[in-house]
Amino acid sequence: MAAITRNDIIEKALELGYSDAGVTGVDPFISQQERLAERGERYAWAPKMGLDLIKGTTPLAVYPEARSIIVLIEPYFRTAFPPALEAHFGRWYLEDDRVTKDGRYLRLQAFRAFLKKAGVESRVPFNLPHRLTSTRAGLGTLGKNNFFYANRGARGGSWTMPYTIMVDREFPCDEPTMEYTCPAWCRNACIAACPTRAIEAPGKLDPRRCIAYLSYYGEGPTPLELREPMRLRLYGCDRCQDVCPRNEAWLALSLPFNEKLAARENDFTLSRLLSMDDRFYRERVWPRMFYMSQDDLWRWKMNAARAMGNSRDRDYVPDLVEALRNEDDPRVRGMVAWALGQLGGAMARQILESRRSDDSDLVRGEVEGALETARGS
What we know:
- The chain is an alpha+beta fold.
- The chain folds into 2 domains: 1-263, no CATH class; 270-377, Alpha Horseshoe (Leucine-rich Repeat Variant).
- Helix content is 44%, strand content 9%.
- It is built from 22 helices and 8 strands.
- The protein has helices spanning 6-16, 30-38, 45-48, 53-56, 59-62, 83-86, 91-94, 104-117, 130-136, 189-193, 211-216, 224-227, 239-242, 248-251, 259-262, 270-275, 278-285, 297-311, 317-326, 330-343, 346-354, 361-376; strands at 20-24, 68-75, 122-123, 140-142, 148-150, 160-167, 199-201, 204-205.
- It has a 4-stranded antiparallel sheet with strand order 1-2-6-3, with helices on both faces.
- Strand 4 and strand 5 (148-150) form a beta hairpin.
- The longest helix has 16 residues, at 361-376.
- The relative contact order is 0.11.
C-alpha cells in the first residue's frame, strides 16, 4: 500500500465534513511563549484548571514522537439555535459533545482511524495554541477580538473550531498566514462592544474580565461592577463575534433550525437552572457544559440568579424568593439578593428585609446593597 500523502489527508478531512485542513511543523511557538511570559499574571488561573499553556507552546514537550501537526477546521455554527438559548450560552457550547460523544467527536475519531489505518499514530492535545497553529498551517488569519478567521469555510468568519492533531509522520507544511486582517474601515467594533472591557486593544485580551472566564472559572461571587455588563450570559459569550463585520456574511444566512436543541430548551430556562438538584445537573446539563463540576453547582445557580436580575422581569421574583429562603450556599443567596434588588417591587423588598439577619456576612452585605437598589427603583 502506498504511503499516505498530504493530499490524502486534505481529501479525507473534506470528505468527513471539515471545511478545511492544513499541516504545520512542530517548532516551538516563540511568540506565544513571549506573550505568556509578558502576561503571566493574567493566565495564572490556567494551571489551577489543569491547563498547561506554557508546555503547549513546545509541541515536542507534549508529544516527543510528533513530526507534524495536522489542523482540521470544524465549522460549528451550521444550524440556527433557539433564541432563548443563544441569549444565555455561547454557540460553541450548545453542541459540545466531548462528553456525549455523539457528533463532532465521531468525525474526529473517524479521521484518526483513517490515520491509524495508514500507520500514522496521532495525539489530540488540549493545550496547544490552537489559533496560532491554524494560522501557521495557512488556514486563516486573526481578528482584533483574538479569534481565528477561516480562509475557507464559514464564509471567512470565526464560527469555527480548529482541531490540532499531532502525528508521528512528517508531511509538507503549508505557508503560514499569521497576521491580523481586520478591514481598515472597521472602527474596532469588537473592542467597543465587549461589555466587560476584556478586549483591551487589538489582539490583547484580559481573560479574567472575559464573560466566558467569569461564567465558569471566576472565583467567588461575580464582581459587583461586572454583574450588569454580563447581562443574561450564563456560560460563554459571542458578543465580539456577533458585531464583527467579518462574520456578517455568515450571520445573514438562513440556516436550518436545530430541532435537537429546541427539544431540550426547557432544560435550560433560568428558573430550572436556579432550582436544579445534583441529579438534574449531572444528567441534563453537565454532559453538554462540563467546565463546571458538580461541586460548582453553586456557580450555575449564581449565574442564573444574576441573569434574572438583569432581565428586569419581575416574573422571576417568586423563584428568587424561594431560592433566598432555601439555598444553602451563601454565594447563591448573595446573588439572589442582588437580583431581587435589581428587580425591586414590594415582594422583593419584603423578603430582603426578612433576610437582614442572615447568618452569612456575605449575604447580609448583599441584602443591604439590594435594599438600597430596591428602594431606589
